[in-house]
Amino acid sequence: MPSDIVEAVKGKDLAQVKALLAADPELAKTETREGSLILTAVYHGALDVVPIIREAHAELNIFEAAAVGDADRIQAIIETSPRQANASNRDGFTPLGLSAFFGHRDAAERLL
Question: What is the pLDDT of residue 1?
């Protein structure tokens, strides 16, 4: 159930996140009011669960890549769709804003 995965992520419950995603990998695509499950994890400081979600998740979008500091993914996205570098997510953040806020200098530099 989507609410279970969200609560497990917010609670930083690694075992529960692993179990829920093992039972239903599609839960990695859960959307919350904060955005994707990966963004929710980052926003709540649940950085240890991010790699677990990424294993079950397809490719990161530019906002997720910015929030987790995946500079190579950011580069790949802006090479094929340069306008995404200046896009805003539902919170109003740009990829550059997310990269800077979460301290990912290399990712931020790719967006300049």
Answer: 64
